[in-house]
């Protein structure tokens, strides 16, 4: 058999078997294997092209054309079959994964803001409306800011009002920073007052929300960690009347316009005079019930006029400026607003409780 005849016969054979195999290929993977076997580097058509060397020079062009046209034909057949198969495979995939629209849907769990954050934002909103700024402060604080500069020197009996959690260093001693000031978890947000007055000259109108810590055993009205909002105003001509008006307005905004407030004298080291503020009991309207322990009033915050000694620590002249400060416990406020009897519930994270607000 001469070279031309051999090549021509092989071409014909490859055409008929190749086209038949392509049509029969049952999957894209199978089709791809077939493509490699025919058109790949070591595929049968490629091998045949190489065999062109054995064809005489005058026949080579004609045979070459025939081989090339077979390649085009096979390539066209491959891409047609590839499209058919991928359509079929996609349809099969869709059919297999079809959604059963008769199944009831699954309700995604949507979280909500925690009650403490809600109350905090509510109070901040009231004061933002009055032109106050919101500031922050560190939860790990030094004795200087938490007590000393708030007119509570070491060994002052007022320190006993707040059982403090001190930070210990590696050797187990109380950690202290260079000026010998002990390091602690802040027991009140009042230290932010000092930090702000160090940084800013009056007029000052700020609110400082944050967490505080005390060595208290948990019970219905105590938790070792809770939240406060501190307020501070320093300006010329600030009086106790401004303090009363501001806090009365706050209580009415938070608890409702029908609620009354009462200022009871109290002692805080950093304010003079100082007071505790009570709001009239919602349950009995002030006549006395179990919730307010018969008094008709519920205590919600501490406040007072900034003590001139505190101004001394931050170099503000008490002859020129005066101011007031207050501190609100947020868990307490939340419990009073929503009649929650145990403030530990606010920390337990039970969604059946939290979902109600
Ligand atoms: N820091 C006080 C406490 O935690 C609350 C307080 C009372 C804050 C009077 C004040 C204030 O700013 O003037 O018990």
What does this structure look like?
The radius of gyration is 42 Å and the shape is elongated. A hairpin with a 2-residue loop joins strand 7 (261-268) and strand 8 (271-280). It is built from twelve helices and ten strands. Helix 1 packs parallel to helix 4 (57-96) and helix 5 (115-129) packs across helix 10. The chain has two domains: 2-96; 115-354, Bira Bifunctional Protein, Domain 2 (BirA Bifunctional Protein, domain 2, 2-Layer Sandwich). The mean pLDDT is 90. By secondary structure, it is α+β, with helices and mostly antiparallel strands. It binds 3,4-dihydroxyphenylalanine (DAH). Residues 188, 190, 230, 268, 271, 274, 302-304, 325-327 line the site of 3,4-dihydroxyphenylalanine. 3,4-dihydroxyphenylalanine is lined by residues 188, 190, 230, 268, 271, 274, 302-304, 325-327.
Low-confidence stretches: none
Small-molecule components bound = 3,4-dihydroxyphenylalanine
How far do the termini sit from each other? 95 Å
> How many β-strands, per DSSP?
10
- How many alpha or pi helices? 12
The coarse overall form would be: elongated
Percentage of residues assigned to helices: 40-55%
Radius of gyration of CA atoms, rounded to a whole number? 42 Å
The CATH superfamily name of the largest domain is Bira Bifunctional Protein, Domain 2
Structural class based on helices, strands and sheet pairing: alpha+beta
Strand order of the largest sheet: 1-5-6-10-9-8-7
